[in-house]
């Protein structure tokens, strides 16, 4: 029951907003009493923390599942991007804004927790791409990881909607890969961009 509550709560938080969704709303949506809800979670903050942790585990498992498939580094990036787009297609940056404004401690805890995973994934992908001759061998991996992370989160902070963020992120993504790619990597990038746009 606890996981069912967390799953429904995170879906509602991402779709409607972390401040907007109340414990009453969640209880009604699940068809349970508020007492039952409070038997599992002491307050809304605890529910936000627990539901975002569950989402984080889900994302981590989904990324690991993609990595076990036989994708090249560029294709793997596109598959991860598709997974994120599918997962957050009903959410809006307004909900993240609410989390940041009304629950800043939780927001920054999540950002700091996710930062390391992002950096590890970016680093591993660049190394994989170099080994596959898709990315240039002489690049400064740590600098490219740093640049991409900084730019990605700048876009996320400034985007007014999830739609804007997805569009701008694709442009950043293309820019990032082109800056590292060999001729072989450019061909693979063009192939993946064509697939994405069709």
From TrEMBL:
Pinpoint the HTH tetR-type domain residues: 1-59
Q: Which UniProt keywords apply?
A: DNA-binding
- Whereabouts does the entry annotate DNA binding, in residue ranges? 22-41
InterPro entries this protein is in?
Homeodomain-like_sf, HTH_TetR
Task: Report the superkingdom from the record.
Answer: Bacteria
Q: Which SUPFAM superfamilies match?
A: Homeodomain-like (SSF46689)
Query: What name has this protein been given in UniProt?
Result: TetR family transcriptional regulator
Q: What is the lineage of its organism?
A: Bacteria, Pseudomonadati, Bacteroidota, Flavobacteriia, Flavobacteriales
